[in-house]
Design brief:
It is a single chain. Helix 3 packs antiparallel against helix 12 (247-275) and helix 3 (41-69) packs across helix 16. It is globular and about 65 Å long. The protein has helices spanning 11-22, 25-37, 41-69, 73-80, 88-121, 131-140, 142-161, 164-191, 196-204, 213-227, 233-238, 247-275, 286-295, 301-335, 339-358, 374-400, 404-412, 419-447; strands at residues 368-369, 372-373. It has 18 helices and 2 strands. Mean pLDDT is 85; it is low at 1-5. It has one domain: Amino acid/polyamine transporter I (Up-down Bundle). A two-stranded antiparallel sheet has the order 1-2. It is mainly α. The termini are far apart. Pfam families: SNF. It is a multi-pass membrane protein. It comes from Lysinibacillus macroides. The chain crosses the membrane at residues 12-29, 41-65, 86-114, 143-164, 176-200, 220-241, 253-276, 303-328, 340-360, 380-402, 423-446. Its main location: membrane.
């Protein structure tokens, strides 16, 4: 017999959980280094525009599907198009995408676990420690990366096994506010460093000369990755939502929080990068090299760094919770097995599948896929190909398969908005979203 379906206890709980799904590695870890590799301010501006014009409508679309059907991702598509079962593959693609995403996301989560422990011990900002060498040692030592992977996986299993209210919602309610407070502390210190102005200019002043088809794809992928849309994670999350909650207000809050954290992340990272002559194109290790440098210049830097790393870990976990939840919820629906059993099994499978990515900077460093490491190839496949494809399919489904009145009713229910808002949403979904996604994908293919 299936377990009783969970629900969010409040509107705030849902917003913080949705924001938690979005605000994690996408905004804090990935956006700074992708921005650094893609030209700075122009890339960030394009990312914000994509987030508002494409990410926000897609976020609303997943909310509409989830709350309207009160079902997890795969079942939601089946309920709306029962005679056209092929559409359920959008949900299945989402489940597969979440799984693949977890295989490299969990690796980075493991790095953060290790850094959190080192931060508490004070080893990260020891004057004798070179941040670049320390990061190379962490990711290049097999047993260290595997220990981090185990710790990250176990934490996810524990929280997801507790369910929606007792696990995910409670974790988010205190993690997210604390993260914002620590971010403000870090930003204030970063922008007051000597030489910080060059970093601020790099991050905020648009220079479109460095924008290529690849950069456009990265910006679109970052928008989707940052909002956690395209894999139907938020279809599952919103299926636990009560009918009196305003979807536009909730989606707007999540987008504002995501853009704000992305903005703060850039202001926290790039002033430090330029103040200490670091390389903005350093890649995935950028954050881990910058943080010790920044906090090392602060009074009580060890304490602040330890706190920030722990909160960064929490933000990473809140995102991974949504990835685990969509998979667990889908298999609970079809197998009728307990949440605990399915969560444990998933944790074991994710751990085993993540081992190649975890070792791609050490014993598997020479193994490449299309000239990329296993870690980078998985990241590219998920972020730059599967996420845009997933969003394109959801957009087509919403506009051409789902009944217009169903969409309109769910979109406006619980809000004070009217026909104008619905009409704008529909035009974006019908024209802007698919055209931009197809254009960016074609542009990217022409670059290769």
């Amino acid at each position: 017999m299936s377990e009783k379906k969970g629900q969010w206890s409040s509107k705030l709980g849902f917003i913080l959980a949705s924001a938690g799904a979005a605000i994690g590695l996408g905004a804090i870890w990935k956006l700074p280094y992708v921005t650094g590799q893609s030209g700075g301010g122009a890339f960030f501006l394009i990312f914000v525009l994509f987030t508002l014009l494409i990410g926000l409508p897609m976020l609303l679309s997943e909310y509409i599907l989830g709350r309207g059907t009160q079902s997890e991702a795969v079942t939601a598509y089946k309920k709306i198009a029962p005679t056209k079962l092929g559409w359920a593959w959008i949900g299945r693609l989402g489940v597969l995408g979440c799984f693949l995403l977890l295989t490299f996301y969990s690796v980075v989560g493991g790095w953060i676990f290790i850094y959190s422990g080192l931060g508490i011990s004070g080893a990260v900002i020891d004057p004798a420690t070179d941040p670049t060498e320390l990061f190379g040692k962490v990711i290049g030592t097999p047993w260290i990366t595997l220990v981090g992977l185990v710790l990250f996986t176990l934490t996810n299993v524990l929280v997801i096994s507790l369910g929606v209210q007792n696990g995910i919602e409670k974790a988010n309610k205190w993690m997210m506010p604390l993260l914002f407070i620590m971010f403000f502390v870090l930003v204030v210190r970063a922008v007051t460093l000597d030489g910080a102005l060059e970093g601020i200019k790099f991050f905020l002043w648009p220079d479109f000369s460095n924008i290529t088809g690849r950069a456009l794809l990265e910006a679109l992928g970052q928008s989707f990755f940052g909002l956690a849309v395209g894999f139907s994670c938020l279809v599952t999350y919103s299926s636990y939502l009560k009918k009196d909650v305003s979807l536009p207000n909730s989606a707007g809050s999540v987008v504002v929080l995501t853009v704000l954290v992305s903005f703060l992340a850039g202001l926290a990272i790039f002033p430090v990068v330029f103040a200490f002559n670091l390389e903005p194109t350093a890649g995935p290790g950028l954050l881990f090299m910058v943080l010790p440098t920044a906090f090392g210049q602060m009074p009580f830097g060890e304490v602040f760094l330890a706190m920030f790393l722990l909160l960064f870990l929490f933000a990473t976990l809140t995102s991974s919770f949504s990835l685990y939840e969509i998979i667990v919820a889908a298999f609970m629906e079809i197998s009728q097995k307990s949440r605990l059993l399915l969560t444990v099994l998933l944790g074991i499978i994710v751990f085993l599948a993540a081992i190649p990515a975890a070792l791609s900077s050490s014993v598997l460093a020479n193994v490449t896929i299309f000239e990329k490491s296993i870690f980078d190839a998985t990241d590219f496949l998920v972020s730059n190909l599967m996420l845009p494809l997933g969003n394109l399919l959801i957009a087509i489904f919403l506009v051409h398969v789902v009944d217009k009145e169903f969409v309109k009713k769910e979109l406006l229910m619980g809000s004070q908005l009217g026909q104008g808002y619905y009409s704008t949403y529909r035009i974006l979904m019908l024209v802007v979203v698919p055209i931009v996604i197809v254009f960016v994908l074609i542009n990217m293919l022409l670059q290769y």
